[in-house]
Amino acid sequence: MLIYITITSIIIQLTSSFLAIKLIKLTNHSKAWILISIALFLMATRRMIILAVAGGDDLNLWIDLLEVNGLIISLLMMFGMLKIKELFQKIQIYSQQQQKLTAIVEETSDYVGTIDADLNLVYINKAGRELIGLDENTDLKGKNLGFIHSKDSVKFLQNYAIPTAIENKGWKGENSFIRSDGSVIFVSQVILPHFDHNNKLIQISTICRDISNEKKIKDELIDINETKDKFFSIIAHDLKSPLGAVKSAMEFLISEFDSLSSEETKELLESMNSSIKNDYALLENLLYWSRLQINKGQFTKTQINLFTIIQITVDLLEKNAQKKNIAIEIDIDNKIEVYADANMIQMIIRNLLTNAIKFSQFDSKIIIAAKVNNEVVTMSVQDFGVGIPKEKITELFKFSKIYSTAGTNNEIGTGLGLHLCFEFLQKHSDDNFKSDIWVKSEIGNGTTFYFTLPTKQSY
Questions:
Q1: 360: which of 178, 203, 307, 383 fits an S-S bond (Cβ 3.0–4.6 Å)?
Q2: More confident residue, 9 or 280
Q3: 409: domain CATH number?
Q4: What mean pLDDT is predicted for residues 71-76?
């Protein structure tokens, strides 16, 4: 019996020692507690076996059992305290890391913000608040995406960007903010969703960078490309086609000269002359426009007599008006002067008057007028022709959206002249005065173009 007890005691002691060695190597406290319990249970069993064999009474057995249980509880409390201490250390480290991260985020020059799972604003860093014009003390509590985004932008985020980010663990693209002053800012945006251990969405982070200037440049490049395409289209079609017609008419005149009557020859020459004049005017407009684009157009403001400039232009276009029996009336005081570039003003009036003749009805009239008010001259060119559809008026002065139709006598044109008028008047604008051009029109009752110029130099 003694040998059996001894062998059993040794086995239990070795097992307990092995478990103790394993315990020292463990960093996982949940596993450590299990090994402690097993080891102490084996120790208690060993103790009770020895006492039972030795004839110990029940009281001694229970005393020993309580001692062992007390030891178990003490050890468990010790490991519990170690676990709590470790948790506090982790919390402290996490808090320090969080503070460092917050400091970095606050110092970054990009917009950094977070929203909760219900898409309510939670946090916006310093750079983000400056970007959208929010005061640092503005409370975000209860504010949703509509507080910093337009309706269209919110709809885009809710229906596409955020769902895509959740599905793909991230999204990158372009979006826009509405500043506190109502202006729009375009941004490149990255959206990152955050999930808990159950893969439930808990928060969404977003990083944005202002690309308003880049977008503006991009849009300008698109406009320039469209302008280039339109320019070559005018050269290839509107300039080449009439010249081709003149070439064909000239060849016909040469080959059939002997068989044509004088009246037929004269009619053919007049037709070619009219076509060449139109081509020349178009070519002149194109050259003026191209010089403006490269800032090489001559531009000199001087005091000029408005009536004189208008009379010269009317004399140049009088024959065109007579073909449709159109009377041109000038209702301008011959003492009015404007501070402008004489060549450009003549081009403006010529283009507006040519346009008026083109769309005037036969046996009608055109009125050119000017009024002075507070050192500002408002000029108008009024016809009583076909009028302009409302939906086309906003596109009249855009080169990429040039609007042109045939005149009342099937006159052709490009619409380039109106765009030139707009650009010429922009050239006359400065910090002290803004030249403007606008139009009023009614289908079937005619059109009136207005533009403004200063009466003298502004200082």
A1: 383
A2: 280
A3: 3.30.565.10
A4: 53
Backbone Cα Rg of the chain: 45
Q: Mean pLDDT throughout 176-196?
A: 91
Do 219 and 204 lie in one domain? The reply is no
Does residue 181 share a domain with residue 55? no
**SS3 for 301?**
coil
Retrieve residue 377's tokens.
Answer: 């001259």
pLDDT tens string 245-254? 788 888 888 8
Residues 232 and 289 in one domain: yes
Q: The tokens of 242 are what?
A: 């009439």
Residue 446 sits in which domain range? Answer: 298-459
Query: 120 and 77 in one domain?
Result: no
Tokens representing 317 are: 């276009």
Token duo for residue 71: 């030891």
pLDDT tens for 87-126 read: 666 666 656 666 666 666 677 888 998 999 999 999 898 8
pLDDT tens, residue by residue, 297-332: 567 889 999 999 999 888 888 888 888 999 999 999
Say if residues 286 and 416 touch (Cβ distance below 8 Å). yes
Q: How far apart are CA 207 and CA 154, in angstroms?
A: 16
Answer whether 272's CB lies under 8 Å from 246's CB.
yes
Q: What is the mean pLDDT of residues 166-175?
A: 92
Residues 70 and 201 in one domain: no
Distance CA 278, CA 285 (A): 11
- Contact assessment for residue 126 and residue 136, using Cβ atoms and an 8 Å cutoff: yes
Sequence length of the chain is: 459
pLDDT at position 375 is 87
Domain boundary among 263, 295, 327: 295
**To 5 degrees, how large is the angle CA 414–CA 416–CA 418?**
120
Are 305 and 350 in contact by the 8 Å Cβ rule? The answer is: no
Tokens describing residue 333: 């005081």
Q: How far is CA 253 from CA 163, 240, 245, 256, 271, in A?
A: 73, 20, 12, 5, 12
Q: Supply the mean pLDDT for the chain.
A: 78
Q: Report the DSSP pairing between strands 171-178 and 201-210.
A: unpaired
pLDDT at 397 over 80: no
At 172, is the secondary structure helix, strand, or coil?
A: strand
Most confident of 68-72, 344-348, 381-385: 381-385
The dihedrals phi and psi of 432, each to the nearest 5 degrees, come to -100, -20
Residue 208 one-letter amino acid: C
